[in-house]
Amino acid sequence: MVTRSLRVVMVLALLSSLCSLAMADDGMFPMSELPRLNLAERGILLSAEELFSPGATSLVDGICRVNGCTGSFVSSDGLIITNHHCAFDAIQKASTRENDLLANGFSAATREQEIPAPDYQVRITEDYRDVSEQVLSVVTPGMPYLDRTKAIERRRKELEIAAEKEHPGLRAEVAEMFAGKTYVLFLYTYLKDVRLVFAPPASVGNFGGEVDNWEWPRHTGDFSFMRAYTAPNGTPATYSKDNIPYHPKRVVKVAPEGVDEGDAVFLLGYPGRTARHKTASFLRFEQDVRLPGIVELYQWQISEMEKAGAEDRAVALKHASRIKSLANVEKRSRGQLQGLKRAGIVATRTSSEAALQNFIDAESALKEKYGTVLADINTVYSEMSTAGQWEIELAQLRQACRAIAFGFYLYDAAVERAKPDLEREAPYMDRNFAQSSQEVRVAMSDWHPPTDHIMLTGMLERLCRKPQAQTIPALKALASNIAGINGKADELIKSTKLGDPAFLDACLKKTPEELNALNDPLLTLVIELYPAWTELRSLDKTREGRLNQLYGSLIDVKQQFESASFIPDANATLRFTSGHVRSYSPADAVIRTPISTLKGVMEKTTGIEPFDTPQAVLEKYAAGDFGSFVHPRLAQVPVAILYDTDTTGGNSGSPVLNAKGHLVGVNFDRCFEATINDFAWNTDYSRSIGVDIRYVLWITGTVYNGKHLLTEMGVGE
To answer: What's the rounded Cα separation, in Å, for the pair 328 and 320?
Structure first.
C-alpha cells in the first residue's frame, strides 16, 4: 500500500516537471508546491510542514469548504467562520415575513437554537495522490473526442468509488489539474449536518449592497458563523437532534490584534476556476460572446425578481439568494469585460502565441507534432462563437425558469438512473443522488410561479427568435406565434405540479415513459426539449475532449518554449496564496489605503438601503463603546482590509492569516479591477478584500451580545 507521505512525494515529483523553482508571486499554489516555496521570504513564520504535513496535524486541518466557499474552524466544537454571503442561503431559507433573519440578523444563544441548513455540506481535505497515469490509460490514439471525454469520466468515477471503498467514511474526487495531462485524487471528509449559529443583519453583512460590490473601500461586515455536526460516534451524518458538534483536528487561532499596512498575510482556501492557461481565442470568445450574453441575461432576471418582490417582503425573501448570486456574477462579468478591453489581454496573448508559433515552426520535429495546436484550438472556439448566443440561452432556459429546472432534473434522473451507475451523469450516481435530490427539494421552497411565468416567457421569446428554433418542433410551433408565448407560458406555469416537493418525490420513482404519461403540460415541454439539451451536453463533452487533448499538447510545447513557472489553474481544490496588506492605485493620481474603518461606515450611512446601518451599531458608535478592538494607529474599529494575494471565486470565506498562521480577517471579495485575475495576474491591480477580525469580534460580541462565541473562540474583551 502506498503511504500518504509517498503519495505526496509522487504528486510533487509530477508537478515539478511542470513548475520551475523560480515561481512568480502570482499563483494559487497546490499543497504539493509548499515545500518548494521560500515562505520566510514571503514573511511567513511557519514551515511548509506546519501548513500541511502528510500524516500529521497541520494548519490545513482547520480549513474547510462550505458549499462553494471556504471556512475556518475556530473552536474545538466545530464552529466555522465564513462569509455572510456564503451563509446567505441558509439565512434566507430560515427567514419569513414574520421572522426576517436577513433583515434582523440571528444569534443562537444555545446549541439547541442553531438552525439546520439542509442544503449545506462541509468538506475537509484529508489526503491526495496522483492518478494521471490511471486516468489517461483509457485514452487511445485517434479516439473520437466524445468517447475520450466519456472514457476519462468513467475512469475518474471508477477511481473515486474504489478509493471510497478503501477509505470508508471518506469521499473521493478526481480533479483535473493541467487540462488533458494531470489528475489528482483527493480524499475528503464530508459533513452533512451544518447549522446557522450567528449572522449579523444584512445591513451589516451586506452593507453597501451591489453599489459597493467589487469596490474599494468597502465597509461590509461580510461574516457569519456556522457549526458542523456529526453522529454521536463522530461519523458524518445528516441532521438529527442527537448529533454532536464536530471536533476538528486543528483549530485556527483568532488574533484579535489584527494587522496593519505592510504586514504579511496568506490565505488557504478553495478557489473556483481560473483560465490563465487558455488561449487568445478563448479570451475572444469570453469577451465577444459569453460575458456579454451573461451580463444581459442576468441583468434582466435580477430586474424582474426585484420588481416581483418590491411590494411583498415574502416574495423578496424567496428571490433574495438568487438575486445575490446573479448580481455577484453579473458585476464580476462586467469587470472582466472592462479588464479584458482596458488591459489589452487578448492582444498580449495573441502576441505571445505568435512568438510560440515561430518557435514551433523553426524546428521540424516541433512543427510536425505541435504545428497546428493553436489553430486547432482557435477552430473550436470559433465554432462556439458562431453558436454561442443560442447555446447560452438554451442552457439558461433551465436556470432562469425554476420549474423547467425541476422538470429537467426529474426527466434527466429517470433517463440516467436507468443506466449502469458508472455510465450516469454524476448527480444521478448512487453516491450523489440523495444529496442532488435534496438540493432540488430545498430550491422548491423558493418557487414563485408569477416570477417563473415571466422568466419562461422571456427565455422562450429569445429562443424562438433564433433560426435554430426551427429545428426543434416544440419551439418551432411557439415561434409561429411569438405574441402568444406570454399566454402559453402563463397556462403552463399555472397548470404544472413541478413546484410541488411531493410530486418530485413521486416522480423520482418513475420511468421516462411514466413521466411522459402524466401529461403535465410543462413537464411535457421539458420532455420535448430534452433531446436538444442532451445534444448540447454531448457537444460540450466533444469539445472538452478535443480541447483537453490540444491543451495538453500546448502545455508541453510552452514548457519547452518558456522554461517558466506553470501553476495549475484553480479548480476548487485546496490552494495557498500569500501577499501583504497593501494600498493600490486604480487610476491616475488616486491612491487607496488598505484599511477602512467604522468612521467610513458612518460617513456612508444614509438610512436608506443599502446604506442603512442598524440602530444597534449607531448607538455603540455614538457611545464610543469599542472595547479593545480599536486600531492603535487609526484610532477606529477597522472594518475591512486590502491585500495583494491571488484569489478568485471560492476564496470567499477563506481565512486571512498573519505570519504566525492566526486569523486576522475573512476574505470576501476583490477590487473591480481585479476581476480580470481569472484570466491574467497583475500585481499593480490585483487586490483582495477581507473583513477585519476586529470588526467581526466587535459586531458579534459588543453590538449583538454574542460574547459566548468570543469565549468559545478563546477571545476575551
So the answer is: 12
